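Quick question, first post here. What does this chain look like in 3D?
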Amino acid sequence: MVAAITGGPSGIGVVTVKLLSSLEAKVSIGGVSQASVDAAKAYFEENSNGSAGAASIFAKAVDIRSRESFDAGITAMVQWGGALDGAVNLAVVVCSVELEIDLEIDGPKPSTGIIKSINLKDMNAPNGSKGGIFNAASILILLDIGSDAACIATKHGVLALTRAATRQCISGGVRVNAIALGIVESWNREVVES
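> Answer (accepted):
Ran it through. Tokens below.
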């Protein structure tokens, strides 16, 4: 099994990498910050206890907001591990005033990882399965918080795109799911709090 995880250095990303590694999967950790990606890789190397887990982890800085960065990250991962069995979109995009401008220009940035995952040409799992796409929305889709309408709109966009992707991908055997997350203690927490 080969899986790419955007937002891999986040708390839920680390747990996901642990789970996939325990299943002897090859896992590519992607994150916007090279420092956080390196910290996550170092964590797995230090805590592997001599298992093959750390050797089956690839880490690369990937910014899902940039098509060029995303494509380069997926290309490097596929060269390292082979064709993808799954994509896990856990990337955190911190909402700000700039996000409102981005929404007017080219759509919600947190949703772009979903669209790119649906279009991955390299996803082809063994055993007749076509793999899966797993997305993280936000707890903001479950709460009534009016402080940042643009941010909340993008989180609802993640949920809507997940539903649409499910309908689009189901005939090809690709499973698509989403979860709503709260804040998790991780290397990226200081970014969210600043």
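The longest strand covers residues 26-31.
The domain at 2-186 is CATH 3.40.50.720 (Rossmann fold).
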